[in-house]
Amino acid sequence: MIAGADVRAVPQPTPERWTYGEGASILLRRNTLLLTGRIIKRWLRDPATLAETALVPVAFLVTLDIVLGDGITRIAGYDALYGSVPLVAMVAATQGATVGGLGVMRERDEGLLARLWVLPVHRASGVLSRLLAEALRIVVATAVLTIAGVVMGLRFENGVLGAVGWLLVPVAFGVAFSVAVLTVAVYAAQTIVVEATALVSGLCMFFCTGFVPLDQYPKALRPIVEHQPFSLTVEAMRGLAHGGAVFGPLVELLAWSVGVVVVCAVPLAIGYRKASRRG
How many separate domains does the chain show? Predict the structure, then answer.
């Protein structure tokens, strides 16, 4: 170095985090995709996760069709698969969210969240990567269930666009449910608290128009059954595949999803920050 030179004039290497700025969209996008890949690789290496994503939902669908399929078809006047496939897709989405919440608790307790927190990555990428991974998992699980449903007799009467929409509808509330579960997980001290979120999924499953037609429920329960997220998902997907209302149920479903995200967004951000700074 030349004597007397101003060292401030020499270009210094800067971390990528500060090159783009912590709030820069480029850094957020890059970090989110990187961490999403980490989560997906971990899932692919876990046979239990793969089974819960593909095999268990298909087995449940087949069982449901064998036990209730003929009866529902006679009562409803259309193939029960138009309700049972969307129903099982929602069960898979919400149950997977519970498993994801337990995973966050494990990473928090093992200190992994704290190690990620000190890396030069965008702060929001940790949460967004989990939600993106959940969305991809829901689409894959729905696709596998749809293939099984087609083999069993499910048909799409509204063409390719209807089929594409069918695959995406469960993502709406599935991701919102994941936001709620993550919010619970970052504050929970015991896993049983997160596991209890599976009870919500179970109640929605049994009181859903995908389980039995709406007119088979007691009159007092019909408004609840008709307007809960699982039923709205079933109705929208049924409309896309078989015919019927799509816009109304979909708008109401999106309202549910946005409402859950709005309520949980700030508590999740605060809780995830605290969980990441433990230890």
Answer: 1
